[in-house]
Each structure stands twice: as structure tokens, then as C-alpha cells.
Amino acid sequence: MLGSVAEGAAGTRPLDVMRDSVERLPAILVGAALVALALAAYWLPGSDRIYNHFVWQALAFLDGRAAIDWPVPGFPEGNDWMQDVYPLRELNGSPTGALLPFPPLPAILLMPFVAIWGLATDIRAVAVVLGAIDVGLAWWALGRLRVSRWVRIATTIFFGFGTVFWYAAQLGTTWFFAHVAAVTFLLLAVGVALGADPDADSEVEEAPGPARLVRTGLAQLRRPLELIDGRQFLAGLLFGIACTARLTVVFGAPFFMLVGGGGSWVRRSASAGLGAAIPVALLLGYNLATTGHVLHPGYEYQYEKEASGYQVLDYNPEWSIEDPRYLPQNLEIFLLSTPALLPDRELSVFGEEGDALCAGPNAQRGPFDAACPIAVPRATGMSILLTSPAYVLAGWALFRHRSRLVAGAWLAILMIALVNLMHFSQGWVNFGYRFSNDFVVFALPLVAVGMSRRGGVGLLGVVLIGASVAINLWGVIWGNILGW
Known about the structure:
Helix content: 40-55%
Mean pLDDT: 90
Structural class: mainly alpha
Shape: globular
Number of strands: 6
Radius of gyration: 23 Å
Number of helices: 18
Strand order of the largest sheet: 1-2
């Protein structure tokens, strides 16, 4: 089932020839072409932003310590301009030195490069290369699904160029590099789980009732040595490593309870849970050893600073860092926020009005004219349905029959999204909704399955994915124009 526009044009020889040629190509060549395309697209926009917290952290790790040198005067050679740090004076009264509140995986990945180039390490270059590799991993992981090659190609293109992953990979600054690193290991984890469970998207005849679930679980608990499936353990280990870049990813655990090797929910859960527990326990142990707290106090410190310092963003110091009362305003960003259309005044990163734009009766607006734009993205975030409309294809995965894959992926997405939407900040300054990078890997199988259940990519798929790519290209260009 190709499901491509070419299929609908039977008898049009050039399209038939192209379709057949792509079908005959070795999968590794198609994947390599997608990686090369991503490498070029991610590098070309350019970026000169200096947010290299993880380079400083990698340097500290190489020196055998957790605290970075801070504040070091000078820009960009120094780091006294860094705000997202936890000063040691808050912990032990030391006048110098600081801890980063972020999980350490991105810094660990940078250590080989920092060992060679030191503080001159180009974190953006590493992000671009790793982001392009992630596109190849997406192609590989989707190959574990029973979908046509055209669906696989379309879904990989959507991931690499139709989601805000493009913006994250080409920018590569501290927060976005963390997303790229987490996605790397999430793709590996999901690919391993899908490869170990080729029937994950098969129709479920009858969902087991609670009594049957309990009996099955007790029976397998009596044979503990048989509980661990090696492939699912590996999937869980990779999933846990992803959590050491973006901790909120941990709420995607239901996927590995329902999808992967083991043959039953008990074996899948036990195997993946044991694998994930190792890196997550190491992360919590790292926090405890460096701060005396299991959860890093640097986040609360930053929240107190931002809640009182950026009142225009509607943060409430009386609320918790994760609070259901943030849901209404964050849902508005997540689903409804639009760009500023035909702005009369310059917008700051906070959405405040500044100097007048487009003065005079003969002013001409341009799509990328910073002095007189047609539309400008909002730094506080934009609707995920606007920036990546092809996400709606995941909805078709819910139709025709139930499957463990669809249930697990949707549960992972909803749980990660809920936790992020209760967070006080939604990731500014950014194009689109950058926290969607936390669940994009779980959404990719749904997009692919959704297209397949519609009969293939089809005209709707081409339009939605094409629109997603165009909008994200627009966002990448504007992000660089505005210096985000």
C-alpha cells in the first residue's frame, strides 16, 4: 500500500517511474538522503547565539567536579551573563561557583568535544549533526512499523522539517540542545520496542479485565527470573537515558508498558522499568550528591526569580512550579496562540508593544521584513496545530481498530503534555511550542498509522505535511531574523 499521490495518478508514467524507483532503492540509501537533507537544512539558517551552559558543565565534568566556574566576566568568553544557574552561595555560602539545574546528559555528550576544543566548542554544530542523525533514527524506527515506504518517508519528513524539532536542532542553544539529546535516545528506545513487538498495532480482540490482569501478573511474579525480556530492558534503559536530558520524558512510560518485547504487560513493564530505573536512579543520586536534594533545588530558585522578574508572562509566585492553575493560560498557547498579524508596533519577546512599525501611507509589508512584517511569530509560543498541522493525522490512528501501539502512544503524549502544561513556563523564547519535542517521538508512529488507516499518504497528507514544512521554515527564518 503506497498511498502516495503517485498512486492516484496511475497511468502518469513519470510518477509511476519515480514511485517504482524509490521502492527499489535500499532503505539505507533513502535514510542517508534524508540525513543529508537535514544536515543541510539545519546548518544553512545560521545562528550566532551564545548559550553554552552545557559546554561549561562538560568542562567541569572533565575536571572532576559538578560545579562550574561562575561568574566569569566577559561576553562571550565568560559566563557572568548566565541567569539559569544555581549559585553555590544559595547552597553553601560560597561566593563563586554554580550548579546547573538541568539534567546532565547533554553535557556528557559534549565532553569528547570539550576535551579537544574546550570553551571554543561549537554547541550549535554538535546539535546540527546530532539532529540530522535523529532524522536517520526516525527513518529507522518507523521501519519497524507495518507501513508503506511512502508513509515512512512522509512521516520522517514531517518529523525532520514539519515540527519544531527543526528549530531546536538548527539553534542548538542550551535548552534546545537538551531536546535534541533526549530525542536521540527516545528514538532508539521506541525503535527497539517496535522491533521487538511487530504485532503492537494488530487489532486487540478483547481487552483483558482486571481479574485476568491480576491473575496474569501474579502468575509471572512467581517466576521472577522469567520476567525480564532483554530487548525490552534495552528499550527501557534507552528511555531512562533520554530522561537524563529532559526529565518530563519520564511520563511517557505507559508506552513501554504496552509496546515492546515480553509478550505481556507484566513482562514489558518489569523489563522496561528495570532498564529505565538505572539511569533515572543515577540522575537522582547525582542531584542528591551535588545539592543534598533528590530533586534539584535550582528549578525552584529559577522559578522564584522569573515569577517576580517577568510579571508580563503571568507567572504567579504564590503557585507551585508545577500547578494545575497554570493549565488555562498554557492550553491557550498550546492550542490557540497565533502569530502577530499585520502588527502596527514592534513586539518584544514578551509580546509588549514597542516602537511603531510601517509608518507612512506607502509602507509595504513583506513576509520577512523586520521593519514592516506581514506576520511575526510570538516568542511565548504558538499553537501546535498551527505550526505542525500534520499532527492531526495522528487522530486517524484511533479509527478502525484498537491496538496497544495506539493506546500506549496516546497515553504517553497526554501524560507528558499534561505535566508540561502545568509547568509555569512554556519554553519562551521559542518558535511554536518547543515542549512538543518531549512527545514528538511517541507521535510519529501515530502519524504513520493514521496515514496508513486512511489508505496511505494521499492528497490530505501531502497538503498537511507540506504546510507543516512551510510554516516551520518560516519560523526558522524569523527566529534568526529576530535573534532568538
